[in-house]
Amino acid sequence: MSDRPPSQKPPRQIRFLSPVKRERARLERQFAWLRRYSPVLGRIVQTLSRPGWTLVRVPVGILFILGGFLAILPIFGLWMIPVGLLLLSVDVPRLRRPVAGFLIAMRRRAERWKNRKKP
User: Fold this and answer.
1) Ranges of H-type helices in 38-79
2) Is residue 91 part of a domain?
3) Residue 88: which domain range?
């Protein structure tokens, strides 16, 4: 016998994941959205987020973050900091939650901008 009434649906499986796995799943959902939204960028993210690419991701992510602080130079810019954090978030669990939240916020902002009323 079950403790819950028959009319009540069973809880979703994601609630039973550990916080680390839940944050990883949240980040993976944002990567999936990125692959759908921008196939070119999605392919790059998919390639770099493969499990064996840690030795490439971490140095490239750090270089992007450091290059972002050189925004006064023509090639470098502030756009490099979020890209570096995105790359590092695959391997650093403490960065997953804020980066996934940032991706969600930017996605919502882009959707609002896209659906705005034009004068």
Assistant:
1) 39-48, 54-68
2) yes
3) 19-112
User: Would you state the pLDDT for residue 15?
Assistant: 60
Residue 5, in any domain of the structure: no
Q: Does residue 119 form part of some domain?
A: no
Number of domains in the chain: 1
Percent of the chain with pLDDT over 90: 14
Highest mean pLDDT among 47-51, 76-80, 106-110: 106-110
Higher-pLDDT residue of 118, 43: 43
Q: Rounded to whole angstroms, how far apart are CA atoms 39 and 26?
A: 19
Angstrom distance (rounded) from CA 46 to CA 51: 10
Residues 6 or more apart from 54 whose CB is under 8 A from it? 91
Alpha helix ranges (H) inside 69-92: 80-89
